[in-house]
Amino acid sequence: MKKLFYLSLCVAACPAFLIFLLFPLYSAVAGTDNGCKSLMENTCLECHFETRICQKIQKNKGKRSWKRTIKSMVRHGAELNAVEQSTLVKCFVDRDPEILSFCGIK
Known about the structure:
Blueprint: H1 2-30, H2 36-43, H3 50-58, H4 63-75, H5 82-93, H6 97-103
């Protein structure tokens, strides 16, 4: 009888437990769907003026340079997980059209 009770308890609790475990992973991945511009606005513009960011983007820095810059910003308090960091690097290196338009760069 006790085995049946524990089995039914597990069946009832397991889906909730899995959701609890998987939600942070889902939200980290889902956060990248917001697009480059919104990720930049929600992270970079909290500390920097858009002119500073756009000047850096206009210099067309390479991947290593952007990785270093973003790692430095995280050390200074920017709240970016690893997925968001690599997304921002990709956005800046690939010169995302939304960000270029935001900065007025052609």
